[in-house]
Design a protein that fits this description.
single chain; globular; 8-stranded mixed β-sheet; 182 residues; alpha+beta; binds coenzyme A; 31% helix; 8 strands
């Protein structure tokens, strides 16, 4: 009999990151639906999430990319309650570069959850030697996300002009990076 081990990145006594899995479909779908209106001001994809089946398909495709090393999607749990998502939206394996994305349930903001989770995530992938260049790209107007990058020691490398399409406009994007070699 084969057993599958869940991939978990511990953060602290209350927080952990669990690799996305089909078993979390309902929980994730409900969290997206609950936060859809607020997330839509920051991310383009929530408008396209319709049924729970859409969420299941998204999880399955992310699981495949996760296993192949082209992306990594983790669910953030605080005291066993789903609080948000932290991912490498994409990975360039040759360059050991990971492009980070995140969002939090509105009720879980302002508590340092993403910043703490991000430190553990970076430590995990740098420690394994898989990623050395960690990148955050966020709209110049997204104050909270720019703060996450700065709070976690990322350096602003530049501003990409009209690089992100959101709600009918192409907005400027800041690009931040942090290099971790061990
Ligand atoms: C971006 C986003 C995840 C940031 O959430 P956040 O709660 O501000 O970030 P953190 O979890 O790191 O928490 C930081 C806040 O907790 C506070 N905090 C409390 N304890 C803390 C701790 N131990 N460590 C760090 N910060 C702590 C900080 O002071 C800060 O609050 P402030 O902004 O009022 O000063 C959230 O705003 C979000 O989901 N936005 C919508 C989606 C989005 O924009 N994603 C990014 C696209 S690029």
């Amino acid at each position: 009999m084969t057993t599958t081990t869940e991939e978990i990145i511990p953060v602290n006594a209350h927080l952990e990151l669990r690799a996305t899995d089909e078993r979390y479909t309902t929980e994730l779908h409900n969290l997206v639906v609950k936060n859809r209106a607020y997330l839509q001001d920051y991310l383009n994809w929530p408008q396209f999430v319709g049924s729970e089946e859409d969420t299941r398909q998204n999880i399955l495709s992310n699981q495949m990319l996760h296993q192949r090393g082209y992306a990594k999607m983790f669910l953030i749990f605080r005291d066993n309650v789903l609080a948000g998502v932290l991912s490498f939206n994409s990975i360039e394996p040759l360059n050991k570069t990971g492009y980070i994305g995140y969002w939090l349930d509105e009720a879980h903001q302002g508590q340092g959850i993403i910043s703490l989770a991000l430190e553990a995530f970076i430590g995990y992938y740098a420690g394994r030697g898989e990623i050395r260049r960690f990148v955050i790209k966020c709209r110049v107007d997204n104050a909270a996300s720019n703060q996450v990058a700065l709070r976690n020691g990322f350096l602003l490398e530049g501003c990409l002009k009209e690089a992100e399409f959101l709600n009918g406009r192409y907005d400027d994007q800041n690009i931040y990076a942090r290099i971790c070699t061990s």
